[in-house]
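Budget justification aside, the reviewers requested a transparent look at the raw inputs and outputs of the sequence design task funded under Objective 1. We therefore reproduce one unedited record. The lines immediately below are the structure tokens for a 118-residue chain.
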């Protein structure tokens, strides 16, 4: 089993910044990708960004240029730096990992709430 623990969510004003962290523990061998998804009330969970073990990144169009994903492989931790936050970024953010290949990705954290409001 892989245990994922997110932190760093909270309330921020529009234009502000937050940094999310997700630490992985347990059976963490063979992780090939780590990433972040988000789910707003009444909407489906969707990709925010992910990063492969080789460092390749991918972002949703809505966050390109504002969010940056990074990973510390030595600490088995992935980060999401979120700048220029907008009210539409409000959601529960979930950490996700894929093991062995990009089809075995059913490992999720408990989620952390991000609220962007004035």
């Amino acid at each position: 089993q892989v245990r994922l623990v997110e932190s760093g969510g909270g309330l921020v004003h529009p234009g502000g910044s937050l940094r999310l962290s997700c630490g992985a523990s347990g059976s963490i061998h063979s992780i090939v990708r780590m990433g972040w998804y988000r789910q707003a009330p009444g909407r489906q969970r969707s990709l925010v960004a992910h990063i492969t073990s080789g460092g390749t990144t991918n972002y949703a169009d809505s966050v390109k240029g504002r969010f940056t994903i990074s990973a510390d492989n030595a600490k088995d931790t992935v980060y999401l730096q979120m700048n220029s936050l907008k009210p539409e970024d409000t959601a529960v953010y979930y950490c996700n990992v894929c093991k062995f290949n990009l089809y075995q990705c059913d490992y999720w954290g408990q989620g952390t709430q991000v609220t962007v409001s004035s």
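Residues 8 and 20 are 4 Å apart (CA to CA). The chain has a mean pLDDT of 95. Computational costs for records of this kind are itemized in the attached budget.
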